[in-house]
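ok trying this again, last paste got cut off
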Amino acid sequence: MLIAETIRISLASIRGNLFRALLTMLGIIIGVGAVITMVALGTGAQRAIDEQMAALGGDILSIRSSFRFNRGVARNEQTLTTDDAEALAIGSQHISDVVPEINARFQVKYGNRNLNLSTIGTTPNYIAVHGYDVAHGAFISAADDSARRRVVVLGGNVPALLEVEPAALVGQKVQIRAITFEIVGVLETKGGSGWRNPDDYIWIPLSTAQFRVTGNELVETISVKVSDTSTVPMAMLEIEGVLRREHGILPGKDNDFSIMNRKQFAESRQEATEVFTYLLAGIAGVSLVVGGIGIMNIMLVTVTERTREIGVRKALGATKGNILLQFLVESTILCLLGGALGLALGSGASALLAKYAGWQTVVTSGSAMMAFGFSAAVGMLFGIWPAKRAAALDPIEALRHE
């Protein structure tokens, strides 16, 4: 009953100085809102990485040419060929699929639309290894590759960029680097963001890319899928042995290629994202502390303004504990109200960033409870000193106060 009465009195006091209470809560509102928004951005980034990891799979390895340093400048000298891909496909026991790839950006023209898109020259087993599905038409066939046909498959987002329905594009003509290609298929959207969104790619046969478009027989990447009966470390050792033999690398010499485990790379990115999220949340949490200091200052002013009221309460029998509880509850309520408004602000900001900036944001119940609980703790922590000061007032001196 005492607690309920104390809360009622505290709410009445806050309503009596509503504008000042809102200004007092401003630091808490901004602090909680900032924490919620930063954690939502970090959680959204982690969720996106998790989705990419699930899409990539842990059994896909990427082989690239190594960087060489010449006079302090790193240069990527291409050393991989289709012969390397064939050697891996024939001479490996721990690999189930091999996909050579050429990647370059070209101007793609369709009607009056002109786009600059990443163009991948590859083989028919690309979509099986990388986990794509065909939405309309078909993917590149073995006959397309062997005949060097000028056919192209579009990523899931490209029809929207061309402002045409996906199904209507199959059979149409586009120009890639001023060469006419026929659209034979459109892939399902895979999901991604940024300037390297795989849904914005287009695919052409590897031989067509080599002999009709780029004029270069070298390949940039060879993706391999580890067989179900093997392990990634065993496959990496085998790949290294085959490629060193193919490139004639003597014992003790460095490799002119590198093997990347995509899952490990994604996990490293996830760890970095988590650290960055905690850092941002910590910086945003500083504003909560600043808001707590503002609460303490206003509560000290409130104690001074209500000194006579405190004297009257003590004269009527209120104990030090009653006065302490009243001011402590009042400061905690201010922070809880500020936390609730900050939670609404952070959730709204996260939704706006997701809608207009295209960032993936996730507001979890855990982050909301953490920010809300921290604001309550700030209210109690910074309300102790003003409450103790009010409780320690001498009733006679308090009654004399004007």
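PB: full thing came through this time. The CA atoms of residues 29 and 342 lie 4 Å apart.
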